[in-house]
């Protein structure tokens, strides 16, 4: 990271805060490599908290200049009129991913809105806060297509897709993830939206040891697959994704939909298309969902790939 690039970030943020978003949004996406010298930095607006995230430990000169620039921002008219209650600095590359409050008072468990739906976040305890903002259009697609459907949400994490599906009129959703604490966060998000939890199941299981249970609860009209690139001891994308795809014919209804996702910068959209053709050839590629405009990437194939397949 290059301290000489910080004036660009400062102007970008002041412009964004002159009319702050009403919902949770990314304000600056250095990870897309469109801003030289700022590739390991992102800034998110959590409706009234500004979250600056460092994905790589910077040198002391950069960190000092960044802190000074952020301190100057809190004295501007844009900041004071934004309604912000805190400014946070997240060291994602440090042990424990510590979160530092630079200004104001942190709200550890903010409730935020996206596409009109409420989500419960959890700040300062892990690398991720509970909602991947680049998947906003994916959650909207699920909302728009899930009416009357039985939905299976694999690698559900905090159940963002589940919230969108029930809000869109899905009959039921089965969420599966090994992280039971994340599923509990998802349960809370459903409560925030006033959803009937009798329509939602939360399975804290290892998918590859639970095929029988998953199949028994089906068949499903929609299957969502949004796995991590790597999860120690349980999942490696290039090795294990195909094991899921080959099970799709037995999980889906005759006209079932699949939203399959990959967020590995080294794998292109052809990876999913080729793997699906080999493992579940009756599922045909339909479309790749566009990423939100604020997630501009110098190479679109390095960014999130959210791909729709239809039987």
Automatic annotation (TrEMBL):
S-adenosylmethionine-dependent methyltransferase domain location: 25-310
Molecular function GO terms recorded: methyltransferase activity
Keyword S-adenosyl-L-methionine: yes
Stored InterPro entries: SAM-dep_methyl-trfase, SAM-dependent_MTases_sf
One GO biological process term: rRNA processing
UniProt KW keywords: Methyltransferase, rRNA processing, S-adenosyl-L-methionine, Transferase
SUPFAM superfamilies named among the record's database cross-references: S-adenosyl-L-methionine-dependent methyltransferases (SSF53335)
Source domain of life: Bacteria
Signal sequence coordinates: none
Pfam families tied to this protein: Methyltrans_SAM
PANTHER family: RIBOSOMAL RNA LARGE SUBUNIT METHYLTRANSFERASE YWBD-RELATED, SAM-DEPENDENT METHYLTRANSFERASE
Official protein name in the record: Methyltransferase
